Amino acid sequence: MAKEELLEFEGKVTEVLPDGNFRVQLDNQHVILAYAAGKMRKHRIRTLEGDRVTVEMSPYDLDRGRISFRHKSDSPVVTSAPRRPNFRRR
């Protein structure tokens, strides 16, 4: 097995933990600890409780994983506050 080969599973986020960690229940009923992939953090993709996600796992540690994809939900996202611009005023 090559170093790059990862196992992919689908699951549902059951709990949002501090420091960008998530508790994910996989479709095979296993519960793992997962973190958001770098591209998801870079593009500010928010993952909330109840979201369907795709998790990549190493075959050597089946208790931890990396969330690589958040599946779109049918319900629209409702934001309470308007977004601030990404620049500073002088």
Task: Explain this structure.
With 90 residues, this protein is mostly beta strands. It is 6% helix and 44% strand. It contains 1 helix and 5 strands, in the order βββαββ. A hairpin with a 2-residue loop joins strand 4 and strand 5. The longest helix has 5 residues. The model has no long low-confidence stretch (mean pLDDT 87).
Structural class label: mainly beta
The amount of beta strand, in percent, is 35-45%
CATH superfamily: Nucleic acid-binding proteins
Q: What's the β-strand tally? A: 5
CATH topology call: OB fold (Dihydrolipoamide Acetyltransferase, E2P)
The helix count comes to 1
CATH architecture: Beta Barrel
* Termini Cα gap: 55 Å
Share in helix: under 10%
Instruction: Spell out the helices and strands N to C.
Output: EEEHEE
Query: What's the rounded overall pLDDT mean?
Result: 87
- Order of strands across the widest beta sheet? 1-2-3-5-4
Name the overall outline: globular
* The first-level CATH class name: Mainly Beta
Uncertain stretches of 5 or more adjacent residues = none
> Taking Cα atoms only, what radius of gyration do you get, to the nearest Å?
15 Å
Biggest sheet record: 5 strands, mixed, barrel
Question: How many discrete structural domains?
Answer: 1
